[in-house]
Design brief:
With about 100 residues, this protein is of the alpha+beta class. The protein contains two helices and five strands, in the order H-E-E-H-E-E-E. The protein starts with a helix and ends with a strand.
Length: about 100
C-alpha cells in the first residue's frame, strides 16, 4: 500500500507500519510501499507496540503514525556519536542514522 491508501483504509487511526520499500532523498525518508502491522487505540500504545517490534526485529523499518497526517514527514538525522540505545526511529542498517517524524506534515 501507499500512504494515501492507508489513510483511506484506516481513517483517524494510530498505526504501526512497516516500510517494505523506501528510499532517501536528501534528508527525507520516503516510504514507497507500506504494510500496516497493527492499529492502536492511542499514540502511547502505538509507541509501545513499535518499541516491542523494534526490539524483536531490529533490521526492519517500523514507524508509528496517525492517519490524520496528509503526508508522512520522516527525516534522517545524522548522529556524530555511537548510538548505544536505539532512538525512536533508529535504522541499524545505516549506522548513526535516526529517523524523526516531524510534526505537522
Amino acid at each position: 500500500m501507499v500512504w494515501s491508501e492507508v489513510r483511506k483504509a484506516y481513517p483517524d487511526h494510530w498505526l504501526v507500519i512497516e516500510a517494505l520499500e523506501a528510499h532517501t532523498e536528501g534528508s527525507q525518508r520516503l516510504l514507497d510501499r507500506i504494510a500496516v502491522i497493527e492499529t492502536c487505540p492511542d499514540g502511547a500504545s502505538a509507541m509501545q507496540r513499535y518499541q516491542r517490534l523494534h526490539r524483536n526485529y531490529p533490521l526492519r523499518e517500523f514507524y508509528y503514525v496517525h492517519t490524520s497526517r496528509e503526508n508522512l514527514d520522516i527525516r534522517e538525522r545524522q548522529r556524530r556519536f555511537l548510538v548505544t540505545t536505539p532512538c525512536m526511529f533508529y535504522n541499524p542498517r545505516v549506522a548513526g542514522i535516526c529517523f524523526d517524524v516531524q510534526p505537522g506534515g
